[in-house]
Fold:
Amino acid sequence: MNKILAAFVCALIIAGFFTKSYAEETQKNISNAVFRLHVIANSDGEVDQALKLKVRDGVLYSYFDVLSQSESVDKTKTYIAERLDEIEDTAESIVKAHGFDYNVTAMLASDYFPTNNYGDITLPAGMYDALRIEIGSGEGKNWWCVMFPPLCFVDVTKSTTIPDGEKSQLKAGTGEAGYALLSDEKREGDVVVSVKFKIVEWWQRILNKNKHRESRPADTKLVKADDIADEAADVEEYPDKSTSKDAPTGNNSKLSLPKKK
Structure:
């Protein structure tokens, strides 16, 4: 009986070692093909959350033409890295235009993201490189999307599938086996692939349990490209306003935020 128990324990240890190694290698392969955007609000207050979305829209619009046409994750990372100060200035100008004096920090970071679905593609939980934009104290709910492939600019409200171009970019970066894990269609049609995805997801949650932002769940709704285009005039016409936290939110009806309580 003891020999059987010992053999069982050894089998579990060996299985754990191999599944952990598989999960780490697979998630690294996926994360190397992806670059994400992570915007964190000052607080969970209604006004701060609305302000977060204005910063998101303004930043995405400002770099829409280039990033929506990026051909590789490295080009996207390099482009962002060279413009961090500029991105901070863009975000801060939006914050100040709404009457707040919050500082904004833009940086390249490796952040933990939970499992998230984009149309018919699902990215497993894990650490991903990202452009992190923190507004004020950065204690509020966060919002994220994928900057490469440029899924931030895909309108999944009009379709349940990601365009073929973005899928091709993802497949090129992850390989056939890696892409199969991300494809909802392939996972639904193959039990083995589905189990492999769950292994990656489970191990990443265990390995990164202290990094999971439980208190700051994300608003993960994708931005419509049309909405970003509509934001253009608003971004360009922000008035020069007081930087006081107690300043009114302004008379621009398109940019109106909930009233501060």
